[in-house]
Amino acid sequence: MEEISLYRKYRPHNFDNLVGQDHVKITLMNAFKSGHVSHAYLFTGPRGTGKTSTARLLAKALNCTNLKDGFEPCGECELCKEIGEGRLIDLIEIDAASNRGIDEVRDLKEKINFAPTRSKVKVYIIDEVHMMTKEAFNALLKTLEEPPAHAYFILATTEAHKIPETIISRCQRFDFKRITHKALMTRLGYIAQLEGIVAEDQALEAISKYVDGGLRDAIGLLEQLTLDNKLNLERVQGLLGISGLSLLENMYGALMDNKTKEALSIVNELHIQGSDFRQFSHEFIDLLRNKMLEAMNADNRRNVARAIKMIEVFQKAQLRLDSDIPQLALEIAVIELTNNLEEFQTLRVETRVEQKPAEATSEKAPLKAAEKLVERIKEVSTAPIDLTMENILKNWPRVVERIRTPSLRNSLKNGKPVSLDGAELTLQFATNFHKDKVFESAHRIELEGVMEEIFKHGVKAAFLVKAVEMKSVVADEYEPVRERAPDPTPPAEDSSAVDEALEIFGGQVME
Ligand SMILES: [Zn+2]
Question: Which residues pair with 151 in a beta bridge?
Fold first, then answer.
C-alpha cells in the first residue's frame, strides 16, 4: 500500500479548502469571476504557508473545463484529475534551486511559444525563484514582458528581497502570511478527526505554537507525534523539548508575587529536567506578551508595565544564555525582577547589552573590566580546532548549544554527524521533518556559521552541510543541497595560521 503523507493528502484541492490566506483567496476568486486573471503572479512568504499549493490550485482553476461559480475547480474533469495527480504535461513545475532548474528556465524561453498539448493553457510554476542566476532572470524577464496568451507564470519564493525589481513589477504580488495559531489548530483538529486520531486540544495547541505559522510543518508534526492514533500533550512536549504550560504559568505567578525562592526553584527544576532554556525563554516571552495584551485590554496599567519590564529582562537574559552555566541567565533575571535592586545601583556592574558596537566602545559606561574578562574568556574558549570527525563529534553539543533558532536546535538534537569529506559534513536524521528543517537555507547558513565560529578563525571556507534521512525520501518534498559561495572576510592577521587552515578546509581566502 502506498503511503501518502498527511500533508499531501490534505493539500487544498479547491479554494474552499485553502487555509489562513483569505486575502489571497478572495483576490484570486474575484479575478476569476471578473475574467481578469493576471499572466504573472509572485507568491512570497514563509515556508509551509501554502504558496505551492495555491499555485497548483490556480493552475487547476485556469484549466478546469467545468468551473463552479466561476472560480472553483470541479475536481472531476480530466484536467483537474491530471493536475491533482501531478501528471499534466502543460503544468510545468521548476525548482529554480536545482541545477536542472537552471536549464529548464533556459528551455522555457524556446518552448513557451508552443501551444499547450492537452489543456487550455500552459502554467509555469517556478519555486524558490530567488535562486535563479542573473542570466535566468534576464531570460524570464523577456518572457514576462510579452507572455503568449496561452501562458501563465507563478513565481514562488521565501525571499522576495532577492528578486529583481524588474521582475516584481511585471507580477501581481501576494504576500502569504504566517498562519495564526487558531487557524492552525482548527485545521489540525479537522484532520485529526477525519483520520480518527484522538488528539488533546492542548497537544494541538502546542504544535500550532511551535511551528511558527507553517501549516506544512504543523501537519508533519501531527503525523509524526501521533502514536497508536493518539496525540497527547506529554508526548508533544517531550519530543519537541517544550515546557509545560504549568511551569510557565507558575513562573509568571511567582514573579508577579515577588517570590524569589519559588521562581528560582522553577529554574532549578527546568535544569534538572534537562529542559532547553532557550526554548523556555522563548515561550515565556510569548506568554508575557499575551499577559501584556490582556492587561492592556483590561486597562490594568500596572500589569502592562510589569509585563513590559519582564519582557525586557528576559530578552536580555536570552542574549546571555551562551554561558557555561545556562541557568545563570534566568537566575539573574528572576533576582532582578523580584528584588528591589535600585539601592545597589551604584555597586552593580552595568550589564545592559549594547545594541550597537559603536556604543559599546564609548567612554560613558563605567563597566568594562567585567566585559573585558568575558571577551578574554571567549577568545580562549574559541581557539581554532582541527577539523576532524573526532573533533566534530566531541564538539557537537557545543555547536548545538550555540544555535539561536529553537526549532533548528531541536532538529539538530534529532540528528547526528556521520561523516566528513573535506569540509563537507554529512548529518543523518531520523525523520524527514528534522532533515528538512536543517536543510532550509537560513538554517543551514546559521549552522555553518556556528561551525565556522567554533572550528576556525580568520578564514572563511565554504562549509557544506549535507543531510540525509534514514527513511526514504518523498520525491517532491526533497530539497537539493545548494552550494554556498564563500563570503568575503577581512584578511587574517597571522598568515601561517591562514595557510594551515586553508589546508584543513581546502578553501580560499577572499580579499
Ligand atoms: Zn475540473
Answer: 122
| Cell matching residue 75 | 475536481
Of residues 459 and 136, more confidence is placed in 136
CB within 5 A of ion ligand 1: which residues?
64, 66, 73-74, 77, 80
Phi then psi for residue 125, to 5 deg, are: -110, 120
For residue 29, pLDDT beyond 60: yes
Domain 181-240 has CATH 1.10.540.10: no
Whole-angstrom Cα distance, residue 327 to residue 333? 10
Q: Is the dihedral of CA 470, 471, 475, 479 positive or negative?
A: negative
Residue 295 has pLDDT above 50, yes or no: yes
β-partners of residue 44 are: 157, 175
Q: What is the CATH number of domain 382-505?
A: 3.30.300.180
Question: How far apart are the CA of 65 and the centre of ligand 1, in A?
Answer: 5
DSSP 414: T
Question: Residue 157 has what pLDDT?
Answer: 94
Q: For the chain, what is the total number of helices (H) and then of strands (E)?
A: 23, 10
Q: 105 C-alpha vs ligand 1 centroid, how far in Å?
A: 28
C-alpha cell at 410: 531541536
Residue 489 has pLDDT above 50, yes or no: no
- Topology of the domain comprising 245-352+364-378: Zinc Finger, Delta Prime; domain 3 (1.20.272)
Nearest-angstrom CA–CA distance, 299 and 302: 9
The residue among 393 and 423 whose pLDDT is bigger is 393
